[in-house]
Amino acid sequence: MNLKHHLVLTLCAVYGILLKVTAQKSKLRGSSGQHPLVQNQTVTEGGTANMTCRVEYNDQTSLQWSNPTQQTLFFGDKKALRDNRIELVRASWSELTISISEITLADEGMYTCSLFTMPVKTAKAYLTVLGVPEKPEIDGLTKPALEGDEITLTCMTHGSKPAADLRWFRNEKEIKGAKEVNASGKTFTVTSSLQLLVDRDDDGAAYTCKVDHVALLQTPQQATEVLEVHYAPRVLITQSLTVPQEGQHLKLECVSKGNPSPDPVLWTKDGAELPDLERMIVQGRELTFSALNKTDNGTYRCVASNHLGTSSAEYILYVYDPNAMGQRGPDHALIGGVVAVVVFVTLCLIIFLGRYLARHKGTYLTNEAKGADDAPDADTAIINAEGNTHAEEKKEYFI
Known about the structure:
The protein has 4 helices and 25 strands. The N and C termini lie far apart (about 170 Å). The protein is elongated and about 120 Å long. The protein has helices at about 1-35, 320-325, 330-370, 380-399, and strands spanning about 40-45, 50-55, 65, 70-75, 80, 85-90, 95-100, 110-115, 120-130, 135-140, 145, 150-160, 165-170, 175, 180-185, 185-195, 205-210, 220-225, 230-240, 250-260, 265-270, 280-285, 285-290, 300-305, 310-315.
């Protein structure tokens, strides 16, 4: 009996220890593992959001998702709200994942996952919805603009969240505009203005307004307008010959640039009409002389005009006699060679004379120094020096 009694007491003690260990483990699981885990989500308007709630340890307790207005969306695998956009992705004792498609700005807010323990444990995840900015529009462009006008281009986009950024480009080179942001409910309207002093170089220039936004990483929005500028013409005359000679073919071109294009142009000679239309042929902007002669000498004027103004340029024609110049004209290579030879000979003479004068000047100074000791002046010194020289020569002779 004593042995049995002792054995029973031992088993009871072991069972009590096991109960305590189990209770401690359950307590630890309840304090650490039995807590829902969620993450904040960011979705572009029109996209799909997946809301996931996980529990590391769960003793078959139900999970529930509810929206910012505390409406139950799903309780376990049971759908509670009649909204076709909300679907069940996965439901188990350790996870409840739902999806919300065609997201709108109204879906933004705090979503709650609840674990129905005693007491109920919750976790909150914030769903951020990005408002997609609309395609920008450019206003303020007058067609056509006139050179010297001051115009203001305005670019505007609606519906961005957060506020979009607008950037201006002129032929792909970025330029700075003035930005303004206005709130409109949950979204923003962004405006950017660009002031221009119109120049003829702006004719045909493309001005682009581009929208930068986190929701447009793959599909950028932009608008482009091409500026048309009207301006008065400018004229320049070009010629086909540098030294026109009798009998040669000469072409003068009136290069005129204006918008609208100044066509046709008017050619005159010495303030009057062209005298010989058989040899002076006008085609478009070109004046062609079939065979030049001395009677063609004079001042030729080209006049171009449009509704904004008139411009002209002059060319003075002098026809040379090929017999006086030589059939091939002046030989520039020969002239250059002659000039080079003259310059070389002149330099040689200068160097020779310089060395000659320097040598004789040295002799004079040496002789003067030799007789300077006993002479009262420079002339006497030179005479003494010459005398000493002869003496030395005689002395050397007798030796």
